[in-house]
Amino acid sequence: MTQKKRAPSVYQRNALAPSLIAAAVLFLAPVLLTTSWSTVVLFVTSILAIIVSWFAFQARQWWWIPVFVAVAVIWNPVLPFPFTGPVWIGVQPAAAVLFLVAGSLVKVPRP
């Protein structure tokens, strides 16, 4: 049997890997925020939000930039907001879904 050669992809999704990592951390965040790992969650989320916004800038998908700059500010570990309670816990998975959507939609043509 001969196997068909697969055509190379026309696009590359640079924001997918950082989005997957951020989504994994944010899905675990409701458990991690009650421990000493809460600062790590803030650092990982804000840094990866800046990285995803940079890839959105490179892909010329400008509408993602203010969204992820806002995520970077809200999850800012240097001057953290004193968010607590069920709303803050509920925002974590919502931000994870936001990362997953952006990771799948931000793409650039392969050279």
Give the secondary structure arrangement, pairings included.
Elements: E1 11-12, H1 16-32, H2 38-58, H3 64-74, H4 85-105, E2 108-109
Antiparallel strand pairs: 1-2
Helix pairs in contact: 1-2, 1-4, 2-3
Transmembrane segments: 15-33, 39-57, 62-81, 87-106
Pfam family, one: DUF6804
Keywords: Membrane, Transmembrane, Transmembrane helix
Summary, kept brief:
Keywords: Membrane, Transmembrane, Transmembrane helix. This protein has one domain (13-109). It is 63% helix and 4% strand.
Walk me through the structure.
It is a single chain. The protein is mainly α and 111 residues long. The protein has one domain (13-109). Helix content is 63%, strand content 4%. It has 4 helices and 2 strands; from the N terminus they run βααααβ. The chain has helices at 16-32, 38-58, 64-74, 85-105, and strands at 11-12, 108-109. Strands 1-2 form a two-stranded antiparallel sheet. Helix 1 runs antiparallel to helix 2, helix 1 packs antiparallel against helix 4 and helix 2 packs antiparallel against helix 3. It is elongated and about 60 Å long. The two termini are 32 Å apart.
